[in-house]
Amino acid sequence: MTTPQPGSAPAPPPVCPRHPDRVAYVRCQRCGRPTCPECQRPAAVGIQCVDCVREAAQQTRPARTAFGGRVTGGRPVVTLTLIALCVASYLAQLAVPGWTEALAFAPVLGESEPWRFLTAAFLHSTGGGIGIAHIAFNMIALWSVGPFLEASLGRWRYLALYLLSAVGGSVAYLLLSSPADLSWYTYLVGASGAVFGLFGAVLVVLRRVGRSAGGIIGVLVINGVLGFVLPGVAWQAHLGGAVVGAALGAAFAYAPRERRLPVAVGSCVAAGVLLVGAVLVSYGTL
User: Fold this and answer.
1) What is the pLDDT of residues 246-280, one digit of tens each?
2) Domain spanning 77-284, CATH class
3) pLDDT in tens, 242-251
4) Of 34, 101, 112, 266, which is most buried, counting CB atoms within 10 Å of its CB?
């Protein structure tokens, strides 16, 4: 007589390692582990789990632009942020008493309140139609070249270029002023120094990639002439911003491929040191 033998217990259903309470019959094509619908990611072939996708992303080198910046895609976040800050500051100038006086740059105030060298670039004239034209022109100019430079140089290079050019405009205004002149006590406001820095940089970048820069040269020449013809235009800030922007643009564009990052960082640090040194020497010789 034969005695029936008990069969083996059925195997438990596979569960997702990240969610043990969920049954998962789909397996990751890379590691072979079960993965629930929440952890599944479409791959070129089959499905991968979220852990394998993250690991692959960490091992993949980020795409770089021709000048070493990280390819980000999407909207020009830095340019839009700069425009938003300028517009918000302009509205604050209209609504908040003393906003302009607290942030505008004047050589007589720069030594004791050095933040004005930068904050003045986020202010604009508020005198009727002139004020609206002032901020409108600068924001249109920023939008016309900013996204191209942001995409070409990468976000942090582009932001450093903008901010250092803005400071360069204020420093040039200081260097070309004198306590004996009215300009020493006159407020400087506007993003023109920073915008001219972008013009100077895009001029170099376009020449580096072999594209025509005739339109940018024309804009620089026209605005340079207007700076001497129209009253109340700080041509000194335009000049300073353009020089700083062109210098940084050249450093970014012509850096050797294998040394792009140290050259970019070093050029920004050097520009900052030179600007601070120029300020200290200017005030020290008074």
Assistant:
1) 999 999 999 888 898 999 999 999 999 999 999 99
2) mainly alpha
3) 999 999 999 9
4) 34
User: Rounded to whole angstroms, what are the CA distances from 150 to 74, 86, 106, 126?
Assistant: 11, 18, 30, 29
- Which residue is catalytic, options 152, 165, 177, 192? 192
Ordered by start, the domain boundaries in the chain are 15-50, 77-284
Q: Active-site residue among 134, 165, 238, 267?
A: 238
Sorted by sequence, the CB contacts under 8 Å of residue 123 that are 6+ apart come out as: 89, 90, 93, 100, 103, 104, 189, 190
Length of the chain counted residue by residue:
286
192 belongs to the catalytic site: yes
Question: What pTM does this model have?
Answer: 0.77
pLDDT tens by residue, 114-139: 999 999 999 998 876 576 888 988 89
Nearest to 195 by CA among 239, 261, 132, 253: 239
